[in-house]
User: Which sequence fits this backbone?
């Protein structure tokens, strides 16, 4: 086992592992080898001598009274105190004594076992290291080539040293990829499959994907001058995104849309024509909800717990609901409130069931104060 520390350092450097983790993996492999060679019923310990670059293996033995019955049944795990004191006069009952063991004389069998154990534990350590690395990247944008598409329409991407999977459910409707295509997506989750090992799942339908694409196209978002507070999507159809500016002279919506819509159109093109509504965020829930209902013009908003009662003119109802209910769904997703619609002077509700409550006419002066008009 001489100079084994040099071997450990070489393994750590080659695999990109921490030295402490590599040492622990080698120690575990050596103990597992000892258990298979000398017996699993014994307790072992490993000591790494940094100065001499050596790794030493020890078997632990418990000091017991001379009359202890365990000496007859499992004698190699225990030592009588009288015998122990021949080597160390200060030893006491209950102390542990360690004996150095050597695998050097065990032949090829021990060497083969140690090799397999080292290979296994280093591989597990490497997988765990990669897992932790990519776990920190959840929500990040990747761009990678397609290697194959399976019979279930799952798309496999080659991303650095790992394989990423784009499930069919995480593709935008109508998308199809083939080997050689380059695909952009966000890392949705990282997990370990018992059969396949570490897996990275990516998505093109997540709101995070929209946010990361905006960062690419809008320098103000990337630099932190414009903040994305929330995003909601019906993938491939429509999306809403809430923005604010940390700089008074920067218009968050204008910066994101770009001159003649060039920035937002570039993002929409990547999303197969998905229409993107940019909304200025407000810390006042009523104001934020009213803006989220755009293009509908809202008369009043009242918050009741997790529900928002939105009052609007009758001619704005269809705009508020949107085609197949898409506008009110996105507004609810964006704001986090269940939205109920009531017509001025009427009894209509949408998005949360019918309502028979009649809402009073809103005070124009109060509305001006609320919406800053």
Assistant:
């Amino acid at each position: 086992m001489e100079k084994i520390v040099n071997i450990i350092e070489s393994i750590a450097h080659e695999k990109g592992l921490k030295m402490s983790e590599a040492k622990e993996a080698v120690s575990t492999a050596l103990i597992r080898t000892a258990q298979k060679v000398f017996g699993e019923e014994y307790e072992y310990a490993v000591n790494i001598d940094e100065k001499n670059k050596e790794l030493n293996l020890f078997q632990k033995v418990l000091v017991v009274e001379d009359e202890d019955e365990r000496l007859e049944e499992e004698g190699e795990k225990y030592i009588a105190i009288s015998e122990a004191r021949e080597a160390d006069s200060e030893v006491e009952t209950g102390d542990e004594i360690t004996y150095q063991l050597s695998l050097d004389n065990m032949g090829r069998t021990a060497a083969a076992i140690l090799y397999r154990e080292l290979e296994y534990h280093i591989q597990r350590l490497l997988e765990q290291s990669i897992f932790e690395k990519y776990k920190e990247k959840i929500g990040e944008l990747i761009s990678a080539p397609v290697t194959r598409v399976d019979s279930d329409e799952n798309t496999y991407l080659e991303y650095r040293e790992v394989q990423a999977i784009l499930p069919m459910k995480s593709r935008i409707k109508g998308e199809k990829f083939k080997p050689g295509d380059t695909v952009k997506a966000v890392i949705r989750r990282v997990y370990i499959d018992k059969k396949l090992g570490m897996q990275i799942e990516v998505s093109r339908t997540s709101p995070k994907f929209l946010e990361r694409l905006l960062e690419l196209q809008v320098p103000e978002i990337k630099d932190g001058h414009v903040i994305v507070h929330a995003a909601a999507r019906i993938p491939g159809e429509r999306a809403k995104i809430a923005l604010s500016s940390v700089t008074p002279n920067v218009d968050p919506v204008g910066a994101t849309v770009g001159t003649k819509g060039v920035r937002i159109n570039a993002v929409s093109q990547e999303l197969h024509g998905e229409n993107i509504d940019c909304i200025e965020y407000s810390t006042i829930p009523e104001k934020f909800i009213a803006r989220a209902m755009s293009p509908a013009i809202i008369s009043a908003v009242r918050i009741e717990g997790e529900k928002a009662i939105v009052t609007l003119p009758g001619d704005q109802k269809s705009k508020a609901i949107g085609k197949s209910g898409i506008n009110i769904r996105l507004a609810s997703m964006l704001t986090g409130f269940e939205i109920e619609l009531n017509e001025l002077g009427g009894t209509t509700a949408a998005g949360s069931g019918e309502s028979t409550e009649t809402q009073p006419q809103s005070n124009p002066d109060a509305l001006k104060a609320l919406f800053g008009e």
Summary: Residues 139-203 form a domain with the OB fold (Dihydrolipoamide Acetyltransferase, E2P) fold (CATH 2.40.50.140). The longest strand covers residues 182-193. The longest helix spans residues 108-135.
